[in-house]
Amino acid sequence: MTLKQFYPEGQVLVFDDGEALLLALESAAVPPTFIFLDINMPRLNGLETLEILRANPRTAAIPTFVFSSSNYDADIQRAYELGATSYFVKPHKISRMVQMFEQFSIYWNQFVTHPGHPLTQSNEE
Amino acid sequence: MDTLKRIYLAEDDGDDAGFFTLAFKMCFPGCEIRVFENGGDLLKEIRSGEVLPTFIFLDVNMPIKNGIDTLSELKETRRLATVPTFLISGTEDEKTINTAYKLGASSYFVKPETFAGLVSFAESFKAYWNLSVPPPKRPEE
């Protein structure tokens, strides 16, 4: 809900676990702009999913974030080792979450160039 | 409370390096910024140094060793692979951008054209940096 607020045109697809996400990616015509992964999920957890995404040339370049309630150093370290773009600890308060996605969208929309968002496209329109 | 940042920048253009340093010093007061003229010099320092930088910025186009080759070498070394590494460039070439992300760049930026633009960029970078959780410090550091 909060993410949608800052990407009104965006489509947010939610999957119950990593396996469902990977399955949907296989048949997706257009790769997603970003991927957010929770760590604690049944079947395929976020870190296992991240490892598979990074090993596949089709998905390796997609900015992929770990968004978890875990603030254990071991989880954070492992996420970066596996190639997480950034690691975020889920805020408890909804107001903090809104603030988080606001900063996130400013950074990724206005300053960063990434495969799903070359700057020239947004500037020319 | 901000912990003091140690920033490594590889940039062959002296003017760009100067403006970058100024903008980041404004946003991260007290930070230490080390500038290298190419990726080779940065790699030499980071491999021999005991303390790792908080994050690294690499210009894409540099003589001797460019940003992409430097990124690739950093990501091949386990100790250096988790240091958040950002690419900056004057141009946006789709293939280079893709390669950068595949190699594990944290983000790819096109250099802002004005100093004001560079300061806004540094401010947004700081806000984003403070939201995310960086790789934990290793015990030996």
Mind sketching the topology for me?
The complex is a heterodimer of chains A (125) and B (141).
Chain A: H1 2-6, H2 18-27, E1 35-37, H3 46-55, E2 64-68, H4 73-81, E3 86-89, H5 94-111, E4 112-113, H6 119-124
Parallel strand pairs in A: 1-2, 2-3
Chain B: E1 6-10, H1 14-27, E2 32-36, H2 39-48, E3 55-59, H3 67-76, H4 78-81, E4 85-89, H5 94-103, E5 107-110, H6 115-131
Parallel strand pairs in B: 1-2, 1-3, 3-4, 4-5
Helix pairs in contact in B: 1-6, 2-3, 3-5
Please give a handful of descriptors for the protein shown:
heterodimer; A: 125 residues; mainly alpha; Rossmann fold; 3-stranded parallel beta sheet; 6 helices; 46% helix; 11% strand; globular; disordered C terminus; B: 141 residues; alpha/beta; 5-stranded parallel beta sheet; 5 strands
Short description:
The complex is a heterodimer of chains A (125) and B (141). Chain A has 125 residues and is mostly helical.
Descriptive report:
The complex is a heterodimer of chains A (125) and B (141). Chain A has 125 residues and is mainly alpha-helical. Chain A has one domain (2-124): Response regulator (Rossmann fold, 3-Layer(aba) Sandwich). In chain A, 46% of the residues lie in helices and 11% in strands. Chain A has a 3-stranded parallel beta sheet with strand order 1-2-3, covered by helices on one side. The longest helix of chain A is centred in the last third of the chain and has 18 residues, at 94-111. With 141 residues, chain B is of the alpha/beta class. Chain B is 46% helix and 17% strand. In chain B, strands 2-1-3-4-5 form a 5-stranded parallel beta sheet, sandwiched between helices. In chain B, helix 3 (67-76) runs parallel beside helix 5 (94-103). Chain B is globular, with a radius of gyration of 14 Å. Classes of the chains: A mainly alpha (125), B alpha/beta (141). Chain A binds chain B through residues 57, 60-63, 71, 73, 76-77, 80-81, 83, 85-89, 100, 103-104, 106-108, 110-115, 118-120, and chain B through 78, 81-82, 84, 92, 94, 97-98, 101-102, 104, 106-110, 120-121, 124-125, 127-128, 131-136. Strand 4 (112-113) of chain A pairs antiparallel with strand 5 of chain B.
